[in-house]
Structures are given as C-alpha cells and as structure tokens.
Write a structure and sequence with these properties.
Elements: H1 3-6, E1 15-19, H2 24-34, E2 38-43, H3 64-67, E3 74-77, H4 83-95, E4 98-101, H5 107-110, H6 115-121, E5 126-131, H7 146-152, H8 179-199, E6 204-208, H9 209-216, H10 218-230, E7 260-265, E8 276-281, H11 285-294, H12 309-314, H13 316-327, H14 332-341, E9 346-348, H15 352-356, H16 359-363, E10 367-371, E11 378-382, H17 405-411, H18 416-425
Parallel strand pairs: 1-2, 1-4, 2-3, 4-5, 5-6
Antiparallel strand pairs: 7-8, 8-9, 10-11
Length: 446
C-alpha cells in the first residue's frame, strides 16, 4: 500500500483493543485491521489464541485457522487478572477507540472490564461484545459455538432434506454463527463510530450469534408466517405432496423465493461429486419459453403441466428430469456460458479446489496471498469482502505470540528493565514462535 492509498484507509488512526479468540470476534477485528485500524490482540500468556495450534498441517507453523483470522494485527500476551496486567489493559483502553471482546458470558465484567468500568476509563471508547445469545435471554449465560448458533437461529431446522435417514436438522458449511456474527458486529461498530462523531461519546454495542443467524434467515420467518396463514408453501420443494405441520419444512435445494431454483447434474457428474449447475426458472412465461427454446424443446413452453408458474410449481418433480436431460450433455462451465448468454440465471457449483485456484478470484483481490515466512511461507485467505475505488489493503502476516509486547509496552512508557520484570512475574510471556511437530493423518484405505 503506497503512502497515497494509505491516507484513504477508512479507519486510519483508529486504535482497537482486541480481546477476542477463535473465529467470531477475530473475524470482526480482522476487517477493522484491513480497513486500516491499529489492532492490538490481547492473548493469554504462553498459550495465546486457542486456534494457533488447532487444525495444524505444517511443522513449526501456526495453523491456517489462526493465520486467516489474525493477519495485520499485533499480539500482546497479558495476564489481565494480575494487578500489573490490569494496569496495562486499562492504559490501553484509555487510549483506544474500540474495545472488542467475545469471551464467555459474564467474564469481562467479572475481570474488571465491564461497560461501566470501561466507559468510566474512557468515555469516548466504543465497547463491543459478541456472545451466543441476547442480554436478558433465558440462554444468556450459555456458551455458544457455531453449530449452537445455527441451531438456535433457525438455520439448521430449515436446511437439508425432508425424507430418508438424512432428514435431520443440518448445519450449513458457511460460518453463519461465527464469521457472520463478526461481520454483523463490524457494521454495528462502524455505526457507533459515526454516532461518536456527532455525540463525542462512546457506546456499548452488543451482538448475539443467534441474532446474526436470524438476520440471515429472515425469509424463513416470512415462510413461517405464510404457512401459518396458508397451511402450505407452493415454493418449497416438497409441494404439493407433503404432510404439512406447524413449522416450515427443510428447504432442500430450492431457491427460497417464488421462482423454481434447483441443482442439476452436468457432464461428468458420474465421477465428479460437484459437476453440477444451479438454474433458476423465473416466474414469467417468457422466461420459461426462453429456457425451453434454448434447451431445444420448444414444446415445453406449451405443455399444460408447465403453462404458468403455478402449474410449474405443482409439477416440479416432473420438470427437474426434463431440464437435467439437457444439462447432463454439457459441463458446468459450458452451461453457465450458454444459458447465461440467454439471460437465464445460472451458475456452476464450484468446489473448494476450483475456488482456491480460480483465476478471477485470485486476480481481483477476493482471494489474497500473504507471506507468513518461516515454514509456512505464503498462504491464501479470503481478503476484504468489498472494494474501494481509492483504497486497497496491504495484507500483512499474522503475529507470533507476544511478538509486539516490547513495542506496545514501550509506547505505554515501560522501559526494558520494567518489561523484563513483567516477564519474570508472568504478567507477559516471552515472544514465542510456532514449534509444533510434523503432522501425520490417517488417510484410510485407498
């Protein structure tokens, strides 16, 4: 990042005390760091963020789980309960603009870092907490992980299939509870910064994982209310031959709206589990006629089973194999090009190897490469998920454990002898590089 573009960093000059760990909180502070904020990550002495040594793959390297969520940050190891540690934390908070925490419910206040105390220390400071459930909820003190949030937020019960042995509430692979919650919290923090511009005073921002999942699942509440009123939902895959109950069924592979969306086999599906394409049939008869003509079957357009969107919904199970008889003749990229050129909503189902190597995503800044050095070397991650016309982040390595202890404490007025004394007392720990053994996994039978 050149000096010219760094001047346009949206959060340049903003100081963040980041007392978060694992994924939900760090995903929030990661975005703040990429927007130019100075982010100091508070970590436990000697051990640090639990993800540093989770899901390891390379000898003497922090895990990708840690690296992909903590790039561009600074690391300070600190015993926040020790008197000296508490003083350091308070001194940091007095100078900070934002304080983010996602430790277990009630722990921040118990340790002396609740909103009342933080606001007293620095009235301009914005404090942001991320927990599993809302304040006042009967589950407020329950510790939440990703699947807990998806289950309590309505995602799991509406995801999956409605028959067979896999008719169970199903988790999405997308981090609806973790990274999604972090992004929601980021929005709230940025709004709080704008509010502070007017009022001159900081505020307390609270984000629950349950609320973040619910927000992404808002159309399922729409469907639930419609079911309450109608007793059936024509836009669901199971319509019309389904025994409707009190709650909406699982959505299977439907699009979610009134249109008919489905995942179809493409050429090569026999050997490639992701050789599929997703096609949306819009409501208008003209759209259906375009699909029929493009696929070489103009008679579909006048077939009474598919004459209008209501009939197409009634006969979905007959419609799917007709379309698939066409899609199986072309690979998913050919289909996307051919159908897309006719204005038909379509897209290839991309597996993660294809995404990792995608030329567009690797060139446009979506997937970025960071040089971590050491045994890890370069690794890829998903970069800032939006762009600016006048600013582009410089992606930097994630810190070693306690790498910035000296720098941060010196900025607070500590000299070398005082810093060494803090190490001896265990208030901070020595800088630690990764030192995990080689990783061996059982691949199973070939």
């Amino acid at each position: 990042m050149t000096e010219e573009t760094s001047n346009f960093a949206p959060l340049k000059g903003i100081k963040v005390v980041d007392w978060t760990q694992v994924q939900s909180g760090p995903s929030c502070t990661q975005i703040l760091a990429w927007l130019g904020a100075d982010v100091i990550k508070i970590e436990r002495t000697n051990t640090g963020d639990p993800t540093r040594n989770e899901l390891l793959d390379i000898k003497d390297s922090w895990s990708l789980y840690y690296l992909q969520l903590n790039a561009n940050k600074k690391s300070l190891t600190l015993d926040i309960k020790a008197p000296e540690g508490k003083k350091i934390m308070y001194d940091l908070l007095k100078k900070a603009d934002i304080f983010v925490e996602n430790i277990k419910p009630g722990a921040a206040k118990k340790a002396g870092y609740g909103w009342d105390k933080v606001h007293e220390l620095n009235p301009r400071l914005i404090m942001a907490s991320l927990k599993g459930f809302n304040q006042g909820s009967r589950f407020a003190n329950v510790k939440a992980f990703e699947p807990v949030a998806q289950s309590a937020g309505g995602a799991a019960t509406s995801t999956g299939w409605n028959e067979g042995k896999f008719n169970v509430p199903t988790q999405s692979a997308a981090a609806l509870g973790d990274s999604n919650s972090g992004m929601h919290l980021t929005i709230a923090i940025l709004a709080a910064l704008m509010q502070r511009e007017r009022t001159g005073e900081g505020t307390y921002v609270y984000q629950s994982m349950q609320d973040a999942v619910l927000n992404l699942c808002r159309i399922k509440l729409r469907d639930q209310i419609m079911l309450d009123n109608l007793g059936a939902l024509p836009h669901y895959a199971v319509y019309p031959n389904f025994k409707w109950g009190k709650a909406i069924p699982r959505s299977e592979n439907t699009e979610g709206g009134q249109v008919i969306g489905w995942c179809y086999k493409a050429k090569g599906w026999e050997s490639d589990p992701n050789a599929y394409v997703y096609i949306v049939i819009q409501n208008s008869n003209k759209s259906w006629e375009t699909i029929a003509n493009t696929m070489g079957h103009p008679e579909w357009a006048t077939d009474p089973r598919f004459s209008d969107w209501q009939h197409r919904q009634l006969h979905k199970q007959e419609l799917y194999p007709l379309i698939e008889s066409y899609t199986k003749n072309y690979d998913k990229f050919e289909l996307t090009k051919k159908l897309g050129a006719e204005g038909i909503p379509v897209g290839p189902v991309l597996d993660w190897k294809e995404l990792e190597d995608d030329p567009d995503l690797n060139s446009d800044g979506t997937i970025v490469t960071i040089d971590q050095g050491g045994n890890r070397g370069k690794f890829k991650t998903i970069g800032l998920p939006f762009t600016f016309s006048n600013y582009k982040p410089t992606y930097k390595r994630a810190p070693d454990l306690g790498e910035n202890n000296k720098e941060i404490l010196t900025s607070l007025g500590y000299d070398a002898d005082q810093i060494e004394e803090l190490v001896e007392k265990g208030v901070i720990s020595k800088v630690e590089k990764p030192h995990n053994p080689a990783v061996h996994v059982v691949k199973g039978e070939e």
